[in-house]
Amino acid sequence: MPQHPRTPLKDSKTDWTQRLTKSIPAVLLLVLPLAFFNPTLATHHTSILMPRADQIVRQWAEVDRRTIEQEAARATANYAANRIDPPDLTVLSLLKTIPYLPSYLDRTKETEGQPFPERLALWKHRALLRVGEAHDAAVLALLAKLAVHTTRTSYGLISIFSTCYEGNARRYVALAGQFVELAEEPCVPGGTH
């Protein structure tokens, strides 16, 4: 019977090291592309900050619209009850609550000589138009504010984005272009989270 040379027993440590060495290139080929898809501040800006700024500004606009409607209803009720012509008070109450309306309400020549209900309808219409027109400028202003208070901490394959706004930091973990919201934390704008 021919004798086969005996194969030496492999050391388990040597076997593990060889397997690890052989698998490193495969792992790198899988993981390295993910590092290139780690979202940047620009991606976060487009995916998270822009929709958030738009949502916040829409809420502000809705509050302004409700205020205008309430003030107009109050002025109409006062006029109907007393038949007193209080146009200056109506305009002043709107200007106190919505500071960007002055140029839209200060057109006395156009409303001069008209009865109060018609002047009020024109003021209300102009105020509501101005709320809609102010949307884009308000979004851009808020977006700039949010961007300045956003930080990104990169951990290679993932990043953590944190945006401080009104004392709370909204945080997201990002991996391969996807954002997952984390729990909010208290923060100080311009400070640490």
The CA-CA distance between the termini, in Å, is 78 Å
> What share of the residues does DSSP label as strand, in percent?
5-15%
Q: The biggest beta sheet, please? A: 5 strands, antiparallel
Helical/strand content category: alpha+beta
Helix content: 55-70%
Mean pLDDT across every amino acid position: 77
**How would the global form be characterised?**
rod-shaped
What is the number of strand segments?
5
Q: What's the SSE pattern?
A: HHHHHHEEEEE
* Residue runs with pLDDT of under 50 for 5 or more positions: none
- The number of helices is 6
Radius of gyration: 32 Å
What does this structure look like?
This protein is an alpha+beta fold and 193 residues long. It is 62% helix and 14% strand. The chain contains six helices and five strands. Strands 1, 2, 3, 4 and 5 form a five-stranded antiparallel sheet that branches. A hairpin with a 2-residue loop joins strand 2 and strand 3. Helix 2 packs antiparallel against helix 3 and helix 2 packs antiparallel against helix 6. The relative contact order is 0.13.
List the helices and strands and how they pair.
Elements: H1 12-36, H2 41-82, H3 87-97, H4 102-105, H5 108-111, H6 116-148, E1 150-154, E2 158-165, E3 168-175, E4 178-181, E5 185-186
Antiparallel strand pairs: 1-2, 2-3, 3-4, 3-5
Task: Provide a quick synopsis of the model.
With 193 residues, the protein is of the alpha+beta class.
